Structures are given as C-alpha cells and as structure tokens.
Amino acid sequence: MPSTSARSVVKAIGLTLLVCGTLDISDALVYYGLRLHVPPSRLLQSIASHLVGRSAFNGGLRDAMLGLALHYLIAAFWISTFVISAQFFEVLFRRPIISGAIYGLVIYGVMNFLILPHTHNSAPLSRDPFNLLNGIFALVIFMGIFVALCNQCFAPNDESSTISWKGNLALPSSNDSNTKKENKTNRPSSQLGSTSSQSSTDDSRSHSSSANR
C-alpha cells in the first residue's frame, strides 16, 4: 500500500498538472488565436501531427482531442520530473523562482532542439520574434516558475530525505562540544583519584610490611 508521502506526491503532480498544464495550453490557444487567427482545433491538431503526421489536420475533433491529450501527457512528464526531483534536492523547494525559471528554459531547449525535430511533423523554429518570446515566456512562467510554486504549495517537504544545496556537512553541535569539555575537565580528577588510591594502597602495604618485620 503506498505511503502517505507517496500519495501526497501523486496528488501534488495531479494538482500542478491541472493548473500549469491548463495555463500553458491556454496561453497557446489565446496567443495564436488572437495574433494569427488560428482556430483552437487547428492548433490542437498541430500538436497531434507531431505524433501521427500531417494527416492530423484532416482528422477533425478526434485528432484535436488527441493533441490535447498529448499536451497533457508531455506536461505530466515534465511536472512529475520536477516534483519528484524536489523530494531529493532541497534547493528546488527553497528557490522556486530561480529553479523554476531554469527548468522552463531546459524544457524549451530539450523540446525544440532534441525532441520536436525528430517527430513526424518537424519544422524549423519560427523566425517571428514574438512567437519565440511567447514560446519561451509560456514555458518559463507556466511550466517552470508556476510548477515550482505549485510544488512548494502542494508537495510534502521532508527535509530529512532532501539533499541540501549547502552540502551535508556534519558540524559538531554545542552539546557535543560541551560534552567534550566536560570530559576533558573530568579526566584529570579521575586520574588523580586513581593515583591517590594507588598511593594509599602502597602506604598500607608498607605499614603492614613494617609491622611484619
């Protein structure tokens, strides 16, 4: 049976996907709809075309829904990667803005330079600066910073299992140092006591030997 922490991580992934995945696709639908007059179904079909080819543009609502599902599937992968990684690296919790922005840039680079060029409907990056800026903006804000902030809100943060960005340096505590000082202070007195007891034993032996004589 999964632990409470594991269920909390799954819940955090689901809530983050619902928020950030929806904001990301909404940005694309609004931007391309207002600026280039691309219908929502056409934009979703273009996402599906990376999986099934250009025939997706003739598939109607079915391929539009496929494109929407594919979007959420890809978003779920990136969100899961961040949320699970944050369970091991504390910096992802403590620095959500910086770590989220960097993560969004990583997503943009991986998707546009490593994955999309090898799909069934690969195309070069748009030379339109507004399209480029919107693409970077959407991933950095919605799939980067917002994902990190949602992770901070929804995911459990067990500091005992995370790796601090400062490193795991075992520094002695004040209690340990006080204990060491007490040991150092007590050590000579105990040695003195054993020495005095030994000398008293020697004296008794000498008195007894004198009496025997």
Provide an overview of this structure:
With 213 residues, this protein is mostly helical. It has one domain. The protein is 75% helix and 0% strand. The protein contains seven helices and no strands. The longest helix has 39 residues. The termini are far apart. The C terminus is likely disordered.
- Count of DSSP helices? 7
Report low-confidence residues grouped into runs of 5 or more: 165-174, 188-213
What is the average per-residue confidence, as pLDDT, rounded to a whole number? 82
Structural class: mainly alpha
Count the E strands.
Answer: 0
Throw out a few tags for this protein.
single chain, 213 residues, mainly alpha, disordered C terminus
Topology:
Layout: H1 4-35, H2 40-52, H3 61-86, H4 91-94, H5 96-115, H6 129-154, H7 174-212
Helix pairs in contact: 1-3, 1-6, 2-3, 3-6, 5-6
Structure, briefly:
The protein has 213 residues and is an all-alpha fold. It is built from seven helices and no strands.
